[in-house]
Amino acid sequence: MATVVPDDHLLERGDANAQLDADLEHARLGVGRVVLVGGEAGVGKTSLIRSFTTRHESEVRVLVGACEALFTPRPLGPVYDIVQGLDHWTAETPGTDAERVRFFGALLEELRSHPTVAVFEDVHWADEATLDALKYLGRRIDSAPSLLVLTFRDDEVGANHPLRTVLGELPSGSTTRVSLAPLSPDGVAELARRAERPAYGLYEATGGNPFFVTEVLAAGGGDIPETVVDAVLARATRLSDGGRRLLDAVAVVPGSIEIWLLEEVAGGDIDDLAECLASGMLTPTGVGVGFRHELARLAIERSLTPDRRLSLNETALRALAEQPAEQQDLSALAHHADAAGNSEAVVRFAPAAAAHATAVGAHREAAEQYARALSYHVTEDAERLALLDRYSTAASLTGRYADALEARQEAIAIARALGDRLRLGENLARLPQACISLGLNDLAEEASREAIEILEQLQPGRELALAYAFQGYLRMLSRDNDEGVRWGERGLALAVEVEDPEIHAFALNAIGTSHVMAGRIEQGREYLQRSLDVSLEQGLHSRVAAAYSMLASGLGEMYELEASEKAAHDFIAFAAEHDMDTAYIRSWLAATLVYLGRWDEATAFAQELLADPAVSAISRITALIALGRVRARRGDPGGADVLDEALEVSEAGGHLQRLGHVHAARAEGAWLAGDRDRTFRDARAVYDLALEKRHLWFAGELAYWQWRCGELESAPEWIAEPFALQIAGEARRAADAWNARGCPYEAARALAESDDEALLREALDVFESLGARPAAHGVRQALRERGVSVPRGPRPSTRENPANLTARELEVLGLVADGLRNPEIAARLVVSKRTVDHHVSAILRKLDSKTRGEAVAAAGRRGLLEDRQSAEPT
Amino acid sequence: METYVILRRSGWDDGAELAEAAERSRAEGERMPDDVAWIRSYVLDETDGRVGTVCIYQASSPEAIRRHASEAVLPVDEIVKVVDTVVVRPDPVPTAIDQGGES
Fold first, then answer.
1. How confident is the model at residue A35 (pLDDT cuts 50, 70, 90)?
2. ipTM
3. A604: which chain B residues are within 8 Å (Cβ-Cβ)?
4. What is the DSSP-derived secondary structure letter of residue A832?
5. Residue A121: strand, helix, or coil
6. How close does chain A come to B81, measured CA to CA in Å?
7. Cα distance between residue A252 and residue A268, in whole Å
8. What is the pLDDT of residue A361?
9. Which of A93, A447, A670, B62 is least surrounded by CB atoms within 10 angstroms?
10. CB A487 within 8 A of CB A475
């Protein structure tokens, strides 16, 4: 008779339990937390959580969801488990991005309305949609009197594991990490004592892993097994033949198996189930039975002979497939079909599982399911073509561009071989998507041209609309602005005709950006705003991001700085609501702030981005440029280094929008360092390209630096007005033009080029207030040459530099100092609470404070709270 | 962390004002220990009758130095990176550390 080891009294978990209890108490006061419980497999994470929830089940609602150890788990599976436990849950299964956010929002409301402990187990196996849910809830849990408890195998979550990104985005202030260690030798000895078995050699063999220890103790016998698998198998041999066979049946279904299914898979006879349960190898679960631990299931599953595994999975497959359609678990069907090697079933169920995964936003799982189907359906026919098409799209959505490209190219080859011109055209039209992300611009161009050629010979439809729109986009990327408009308009007209909102928004974006880049700012903004409106209306979140992105970066590149900054902040607020990435926008915000003369803010954004290794090359380049320009303008060390790195990274792409920006910044840096030769070299490096593309601002700045070196013959009349005025020697008018755009440094630089003592003094004042040491030095030199010596003025008090808080932020800060909470501030200022949260975060960041109290103290020290109107409601 | 020289020329009226600034500097430095570490300073007798300093800091970046200065309300004239330190003779003026206590 196998010995069952009692685990009613957990050893060596006192600290962990105390932490959980404390966090729950804290949460119940209204400020929820995320508790991350990490530890190796078998260390007792589930046992800990179970004892915790049992302790508190009379005070709080407990909801549990478990992630499955499947290659392609059921998307949102654990979330659905959780909402099963809710009484009045009405939210529908989400089918679009917008619906998904509403779904998560409804779940958050449940956590807010009722103190809850929501447990997600084994999140290292979580599917992409569940990870999104965890990110959504985790970032907002502090507004609920609830705990979000996540358990995971921390030793399995490496640098590239998707969970790592999610963990990194949880606010540290509301996250607790509990790390469970294996038992000490004393702990192991105690377990042995309770089982009335000898402890000798047990710690050395098991390393203190509680699961391993309990398996060994339960197995009995004289020898201690070497591995966990051996221990589990040893314990299993103590069952009768019938019981042992039953374990096999349970082992092929990860997680837990419903009784009716077990009956089918076991061939009708489950009499020995009682024995398995009594032995402790299986335990009852909410819906059926399962192994006590995934490690045990794996051990048994791996001990199956290949034949037995195939046949058990085949039986499970057949039983599950007989269920009515609305009850079918597609990812389980696909899993068993694959494990049974049943090609027909895989090709039937995997794509269906993929489509379902896509609908709930589990794109990684969708891609895996399509890949699974492709591995079975190898005939190069129309069906494989369709699978490749969908796989490629899913892979792109998860950032696996190389895989997406390969699949798309195979699809193209098959379409050609089959003579299917429509599919050929469609896949050629979609190829640029992956190419652009990999920097393969020539390939993208070729494919786009051929797509149009082929599709124009067929009945015009959405495929041709897409091809036109992509061509417009490609032309815009290479700054062939007028062509970008032309092709974009053709795509737009057709998209409207076929009523495809996504292509409609895409085309509007390409046209708008092209107009902006050509200097037709108002027209460009109008189109981009329309693109934004369509995308918001239709809930197309990635298109929303693209619209804001072009508004911020495009307008920034054209020195429409106020508009660019506003678009950046609008997007950041939107992205916060939808947990989207904002790195690219923030890099442009950094650059924009440089030109607006707000250098501390600019460098803060830039450094935050540069500290994050996951940030894309494009965002990195712009952040490096921002940092490099500020260091050069201040005369601080390290400017040349970051601009060298920026050049290195941008040379790979060869695009004007990076190279132009980089070389302009480098020319400036070289000039401020007194290196005329290098200034000229950088200014010339990409000048011809800038002229060819008629880029007003890059051509303008590069011409300007050549002029400063005395090497400019003439500049085209279309270059950006402020630079043109400087080159024409109109210092005052140039400065006015710069000031109109909000650029104090550039305005002062223009004044510094004049001969007029008054203008030079004005320039010096601005340079000194900005801390632009090299430029200030140059002006002093010029004044000295005129016989004018300017003594150092009284040191500007740093009270005049209020940490660069905006007027609105100062206003919010004042209300914080008056003791108002965020919801009250929102009510007072008649803005949303989310807006106030955003302002408070910015204030904390700018004053380098972790709490509101710290920020108020810092502000007081710096005199920011004086001269304030008293906070009376108006 | 790299080593930097910071020049704060004619930053204060007199020694008393400087002493207050030094205390702010120390306190602020404690709030950002991973970003700046104040090593030592020389107090300068400026020709305009005011006092200034040459400060040696270790810092994660020039921007960290500026952030520290901004919070502690200290001026920053120039930041230069140090690539090597050559000590020829010990400091002629005994420092607080040498004397084993507060000066």
1. very high
2. 0.90
3. 63
4. -
5. strand
6. 6
7. 16
8. 86
9. A93
10. yes
In this prediction, residue A110 carries a pLDDT of 94
**pLDDT tens digits for range B3-34:** 999 999 999 988 889 998 999 999 999 999 99
Q: What is the mean pLDDT of residues A464-470?
A: 95
Look at A600 and B66 and tell me if their CB atoms are within 8 Å: yes
Q: What is the mean pLDDT of chain A?
A: 90
Q: How many CB atoms lie within 10 A of CB A787?
A: 7
Residue A828 pLDDT level (bands cut at 50, 70, 90): confident
For residue B55, the distance in angstroms to the closest alpha carbon of chain A comes to: 15
> Please, what is the angle between helix A822-829 and helix A807-817, to 10°?
130
> Order of strands across the sheet with A288-291?
A257-258, A288-291, A282-284
Task: Decide which of A652 and A228 is more confident.
Answer: A228
Name which of A758, A701, A750 is nearest A729 in CA terms.
A750
Q: Does B95 touch chain A (CB under 8 A)?
A: no
Q: Look at A292 and A526; give whichever has higher pLDDT.
A: A526
Asked if A636's CB is within 8 angstroms of B77's CB, the reply is no
Q: Which burial class, exposed, middle or buried, applies to A90 when counting CB atoms under 10 A from its CB (0-12, 13-18, 19+)?
A: exposed
B24: closest CA of chain A, how far (Å): 10
Phi-psi region for residue B33, left (φ > 0), alpha (ψ -120 to 50) or beta?
alpha
The residue to which tokens 């005070």 are assigned: A59
CA distances from A821 to A55, A347, A445, A694 (A): 33, 56, 55, 52
B33: which DSSP letter? T
Tell me the chain A residues in contact with residue B48 when contact means C-beta distances shorter than 8 Å: 792
The pLDDT of residue A789: 81
Q: Is residue A349 over pLDDT 70?
A: yes
Give kind and range of the element (H or E) at residue B8. strand B2-12
Inter-chain contact A607–B67, Cβ cutoff 8 Å? Answer: no
Per-residue 3-state assignment (H helix, E strand, C coil) for B60-92: CCHHHHHHHHHHHCCCCCEEEEECCCCCCCCCC
Compare CB distances from A848 to B71, B74, B76 and report the shortest one's residue.
B71
Burial annotation A672-700 (CB, 10 A radius, 16+ → b, else e) = beeeeebbbebbbbbbebbbebbbbbbbb
Quick one: average pLDDT of A76-91? 89
Q: Which two tokens stand for residue A831?
A: 């803005």
Predicted TM-score (pTM) of the model is 0.74
DSSP string, A742-798: T-HHHHHHHHTTSS-HHHHHHHHHHHHHHT-HHHHHHHHHHHHHTT---PPPSPPPG
Token pair recorded at residue A781: 């030199």
B32, B71, B75 ranked by CB distance to A795: nearest: B75
Per-window interface: B 56-75 vs A, CB < 8 A? 61-63, 66-67, 69-71, 73-75
Q: Which helix (H) or strand (E) holds A63?
A: strand A61-66
Does the CB of B44 have a partner CB in chain A at under 8 Å? Answer: no
Portion of chain A with pLDDT greater than 90, in percent: 69
CB proximity B6 to A under 8 Å: no
Position with higher pLDDT, A221 vs A786: A786
